[in-house]
Design brief:
Blueprint: H1 3-10, H2 17-26, E1 30-36, H3 41-58, E2 63-69, H4 84-92, E3 96-100, H5 101-106, E4 119-121, H6 124-133, E5 137-139
Parallel strand pairs: 1-2, 1-5, 2-3, 3-4
């Protein structure tokens, strides 16, 4: 075994190792996606509480949290949402709130009708499927 091979084998010659370690620290090990598809402020409050509890238990820096709303659940992401205070708190805590654009189109809603600061995906169900394939935990409160 030559010197270069030996260094690579021992991990001493791997130039990419520091950036890989930094990348692992930057990416949370835990990811959870919550689905809300009911027009029920109690269900939304439960989802918001679940998101906060996960962050409290695991540490906000150690978990990515998304709440996806589609169908009747989209009403809670409108600008006049009955859970607006909870939405503001979730956004402040880096919870990603996501609206389904298919539902918006079906209900003739625009981004101006929606709560400020939320994100959008074309299809909420498809987004959940993709996240599950990526290894995200799926919760339906």
């Amino acid at each position: 075994m030559n010197r270069r091979s030996l260094l690579a084998f021992l991990g001493l010659g791997a130039a990419a190792a520091p950036s890989l370690a930094a990348q692992k620290k930057a990416t949370p090990k835990n990811s959870v996606i919550l689905q809300v598809s009911d027009r029920d402020s109690n269900r939304w409050q439960l989802a918001l509480n679940n998101a906060r509890n996960v962050q409290t238990d695991l540490g906000q820096a150690n978990v990515q949290v998304e709440i996806v709303a589609y169908g009747p659940g989209l009403d809670m992401l409108k600008s006049e949402s009955p859970v607006a205070d909870g939405l503001a708190g979730a956004l402040d805590a880096s919870v990603r709130l996501i609206a389904c654009q298919n539902t918006m189109q079906n209900n003739k809603l625009t981004r101006e009708d929606m709560y400020s600061g939320i994100a959008y995906v074309q299809a909420g169900v498809t987004h959940i499927m993709k996240r599950q394939r990526e290894g995200w935990a799926y919760i339906r409160p």
